[in-house]
Model the fold of this input.
Amino acid sequence: MNIGQEVLSLLKEEITEIEYKRYIKQLTYDPKKSSTDLAVFYAPNALVANWIKSKYTEKIAHLFEIKNGSKVSIKIALKNQTDLEKPKQNVEQKVQHSLLNPSHTFDNFMVGGSNQFAYAAVKSVSEKPGIVYNPLFIYGGVGLGKTHLMQAAGNVFQNQGKSVIYTTVEQFLNDFIRHLRNKTMERFQEKYRKCDVLLIDDIQFLSNKDSIQEEFFHTFEALKGAGKQIILTADKHPKKIGGLEERLQSRFEWGLVADIQPPELETKIAIIEKKCEINKVKLTKDIINYIATVIDSNVREIEGILSKLHAYSQLMHVDIDLAFTKNVLKDQLQENRANLTLDTITQSVSKDLNIKPSEIRSKGRSKNLVYARRIAIYISRELTQNTMPQLAQYFGMKDHTAISHTLKKINELIEHDEDFKVKIDELTNKITSTS
Ligand code: ADP
Ligand code: MG
Done:
């Protein structure tokens, strides 16, 4: 593998599979045209090239820097385009300082019950660094906004002219190894121990890496002793990260440990609206609600979805409406729901409405049963690949016409009965966020 391919495979880890397949996978690296300070990639068409330029060049540049230790300018050219002018000066400069994502700000972070504790903690640290909570430890699942929040504080500090280091454990480790090899450990220590703010992302990867734990411990002590702010994130509580030296684990809990939970529906809606605003994508309320109910709690998917919608609508010259959205998201949803079965849906409906699964699947005609069965059938049709005859068999109906009749009835209800529609949305949301 050449360095270009290596960088792309590192990038793959940082983005969604959909984003990777749709854009990054289409890139080819040209080792001949590239040099130590220029990396040249080819994209198959202008659409892909533009998306990659606007969305990923900073990331790619950053990964190159980690890999070979020096700054590299990134050129995304079209496959048959040979004139490779040198990138402009200001582009190069931007790359040097762009380790923090400038759109990761507090203003762009939507606060709800699920994340308000972490938000308040990071906000107050950004106002009084080194004083209130040091270290601040944020933990929670993938795509819930830990990196965003941490970088929001980083951006505040950077705008005040403080020296901020944002790094993942992997980058920290690579940097360590490189300095060790080059016998320049003083420079390494100077860099990390003299900064004003140290942000380390995904600290769980320190687990079982003894030499770097030792180095990190001394960095931590130096910074903490000098009253410099440290912010850490992880996917779990410090107590639950195995393979950590005891002295590190206890220090992680010295300041404040704050968790982030999966967002509620309203927060997801607010996040989607915000992302639309930032990415200049116009979506109706209907579409936003739809996206919010069908994606799971991992907010990271949202940007991939928006760029996909945008790219498709440009490519096909159509407006983004609900039917179009459903169509575009089909394969994405199928991936999410590969393990969603009629059993799991029926169980969720049964639990929510307090009716036994066997009753939902029976021929009973009481009002409550019919109501529950309709909801289960509708959601099953929306979320699984089962055919109408398969649904008929499962739900104890005569044949596919009975199912088709039920679906027609439900669509009428959804249109005229707001309560029913809300119930369906709520349950769909519940089922998709736990699958
Ligand atoms: P994590 O580090 O927890 O895996 P990220 O911080 O990378 O998650 O967030 C994933 C994506 O979701 C980012 O694009 C981020 O901006 C967005 N995001 C997550 N939570 C929020 C929020 N509350 N408001 C706005 N954007 C959010
Ligand atoms: Mg993160």
Remarks:
- The pocket of magnesium ion (ligand 2) is lined by residues 146-147, 201 (CB under 6 Å).
- The longest helix spans residues 46-68.
- The chain has four domains: 3-86, 116-260, 265-333, 337-434.
